[in-house]
Automatic annotation (TrEMBL):
Pfam families: Abhydrolase_1, DUF829. Residues 82-210 form the AB hydrolase-1 domain. It comes from Spiroplasma turonicum. It comes from the Bacteria. This is AB hydrolase-1 domain-containing protein. PANTHER family: ALPHA/BETA-HYDROLASE, ALPHA_BETA HYDROLASE FOLD-1 DOMAIN-CONTAINING PROTEIN.
């Protein structure tokens, strides 16, 4: 069993090592251009993100454990509002950068970075939330220390949305000048997400087998890597939280990777601490693709949410 768990752990992390090697062969702008063309073509009807490549720059910063994290940003020096975009598992900064670029229409600056063991960032065990939240906090510190920042809006996709929702319950958001969050296709229960990932890799696992393997995998994180990936869960933290920032939750009923019911549950839990959250559950749309399928409605919802919470 230990051999199996070690291999599953390596499998969960190796996918990102492979993508990192591939992505390292290209400039961020080259990858962003490919994403932009794909999005414009999929949405059609003359839609264009209109990316200004002259404004895009690359940078890097160190996280809490000296891991080097790579970032890309678009900066209009006349504006001091920043959007920090958080990608999902097995994705990269270029994906989250282009996914949040529609917010440039409001004049905002865009900052996206690779979580550990993703894109161009250093290798380190993926924790699907715990260490990634610390990566976010160091990204926000880097941003505030190196640019003139008036406000920060967070937008997260899948794992990035989960990190956002964890961070929103911390006490550091005022220090980092975070005022709003957009949570797209988040998850609540890490166990369920790991089971979904396992079944996507190994088709023969049934539900009972997956539960047993996930339990052993979590034990290995604790014993071998000294990481409690269930530390400070959203469910346990909400009752202890007194202040947070407003979040808009976006999800689809057709999402088979993360359940829309998780967004609903987090929204309900957060009613204890804020009345300013909003939620939209679309009837259709694959995982983190409601922006593509419901483009105009998606943008309108987000813009109005931001304007209501200036």
């Amino acid at each position: 069993m230990d051999f199996l768990i070690d291999n599953i752990f390596n499998l969960l992390n190796k996918k990102n090592l492979d993508s990192r090697d591939y992505l390292s062969k290209f400039k961020s702008t080259d990858i962003i251009k490919l994403y932009e063309e794909a999005i414009d073509n999929e949405i059609g009807n003359g839609f264009s993100l209109g990316v200004d490549y002259n404004q895009i720059q690359e940078t890097s910063f160190l996280s809490f454990d000296e891991k080097l994290l790579k970032a890309v940003y678009s900066h209009n020096k006349k504006n001091k509002v920043w959007v920090v975009s958080l990608h999902g598992y097995s994705s990269s900064k270029e994906s989250s950068f282009i996914s949040s670029y529609f917010l440039k229409k409001l004049g905002f600056n865009i900052f996206a970075f690779d979580f550990r063991n993703h894109g161009g960032s250093d290798h380190s065990p993926i924790t699907l939330g715990v260490n990634e939240q610390k990566d976010l906090e160091f990204a926000l510190s880097y941003l505030n220390n190196n640019f003139k920042v008036k406000k920060v809006i967070l937008i997260g996709y899948s794992m990035g949305a989960h990190v956002l929702n964890r961070y929103a319950l911390s006490s550091n958001f005022k220090k980092h000048k975070v005022v709003l969050g957009i949570s797209d296709s988040t998850f609540l229960h890490l166990n369920e997400v790991l089971k979904t990932l396992l079944s996507s890799y190994v088709k023969i696992f049934n539900n009972k087998m997956s539960e047993s393997i996930v339990k052993k995998l979590l034990e290995m994180y604790n014993k071998k890597h000294k990481i409690d990936v269930l530390e400070k869960s959203i469910i346990s933290t909400v009752p202890l939280c007194k202040k947070t920032f407003p979040i808009m939750f976006l999800h689809s009923k057709k999402d088979v990777i993360t359940s829309y019911k998780d967004s609903e549950k987090i929204f309900e839990l957060r009613n204890q601490i804020t009345s300013k959250d909003e939620i939209k559950i679309f009837e259709t749309g694959e995982h983190i693709r409601t922006f593509i399928e419901h483009n105009m409605e998606y943008i309108d919802l987000v813009f109005k949410f931001i304007k209501r919470n200036k």
